[in-house]
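Appendix C reproduces, verbatim, an entry submitted by the partner laboratory led by Prof. M.T., so that reviewers can inspect both the input and the predicted structure.
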Amino acid sequence: MTQKENWQATNRLGGLRRFAIAITAFNILGHAVFGFEQSWATPFVSVGTAYFFEIVFELLDCYIHGHKPRFAGGWRNLVDFLLSAHITGLAVGMLLYANARLMPVVFAAAVAITSKALFRVTVQERSRHFLNPSNFGIATTLLLFPSVGIAAPYHFTENLSHWGSWILPAFIVASGSFLNIRFTKRIFVALGWVTGFFAQAVIRHYVFGHSLLGALLPLTGVTLVLFTFYMVTDPATTPCMSRGQFVFGASVAATYGLLVSMHIVFGFFFALATVSLVRGATLYAQNYLTHTADQGFAAQAALVVAREMA
């Protein structure tokens, strides 16, 4: 591993650890203090499902390619290996609301982890998943289970005082900004999303006559604050370069505005899933064209060599 790759791996692991600690603390405080309305069983079931499928797919990959599991070698390796699944499971359990039912949450967590194994593309000579796992699991569940919705925005601060309902979002913005600047390097995704959100609100106001305040108001809720700094900025499924990050975030916002104008609910989840799918298809197409061009070049070179040797 090169020095640059080692630095990237260290930052990725550092970001995952801090994110896992933050979302765990947030869920504990959410159920005990803030006013989360899901049952206490929900996060345990969701995380357990995510752990199970993460380990199953890792063992399957080891069987196919003949390598040791990444979680082998002690409890520390196991903990680090399960960090991603831990975050996905808690995000699914926190953002979905299925009333007293647990199976839709199990389904969402299973789909989220399965998407990492199925929807992959080669980027910089490495196979990577291109769908945000928790977002795709949530979006798929919302599509297939009409009776399931997302957690009501008010329940994130339901039991907090007036100042508490301001302090919590401010803390999420501060911690999320630090995480995305220092570790994930995806702050431009958040900037593109916020800029695009303002732009789509203004366009909807002047083109469709929508209330400007009403169009901007969702961005002030804790749900979209979490989405801005902890979901749309997923480093594994977003571009690396600053310009690409900004375009990605702005594209999600533009798609959201289009979906809302079509009266489609849960637009931000569907917008991120749509843009991620388009990005994945684009990467597939680029790889195919590059491979085809390389084959054509190799054929031409072989023809030239054959002529020279004739």
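The first strand starts at residue 96 and ends at 97. Additional entries are available on request from the coordinating office.
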